[in-house]
Structure prediction request, 248 residues.
Amino acid sequence: MEKIKYPVYDYIKFIWKKKLLLIGFTILCMVIGAALSYIKPTVYTSTALVFTGNGNNEKLSKPRLITDTYKDELPEDLSGSLDVKIAEPFQITLSLSGSDKKTVESNTKKVAEQYTNDLIERFNVQFEVQKNYKNSLEGALKKTEEAISEYNQLIQEASDEYKLLHYNEVLFNKEETAEKYRSDLNEAEYDLALAETPELMDVTTNQSSNNLLRNALLAGAFGFQLMLVLLVLWKYIINARRALSQRQ
Prediction:
């Protein structure tokens, strides 16, 4: 009668016999992972939060365009780490990372201030244009209202039916124009009231953690899996040699 074989059980039994080797190698890898955590240099990340204001500026509101514009202003070893993100509506963060805390902080502040100043310059131009537009609307509305008053007077004094009809038609057009000016003026005043100047809100610096526990666990998991594969391969080689010797 042919002997029943249980290959999976045979492999598990072999691995169990070598459990000390498996555990020992796993612990060794965990120790190595923990040691490497202390060797890894500390990285400092400085982040500036900028309120962009509510002006319209396509070039200074797109992260990719902001990066391309300001990275050349930074030292070569930091320019590649410039990271620009939209934190929230009207909020942009600019981050730099490096091994020297003072250098990272100073350059982050420098590029954030330059970015903020460019935003303010653009905002002031738009604000001035909007203010001039409001003033123009006020002037146009005043002239139109004066014209309306004049035509009301002419209508009261007119005796000719043709002139009366003409004055009424002109007056109707002037009143429509005045209404449009009032609507545009209200909108312009509303926009000016809501205008907010860009501002550098804050600059913070964080230090990278050595992730001791995380690195030790990852190294241990890697070591366990590697030794498991090696033990399975070891048992396979033993079985293969035994099978060859039995054939001979």
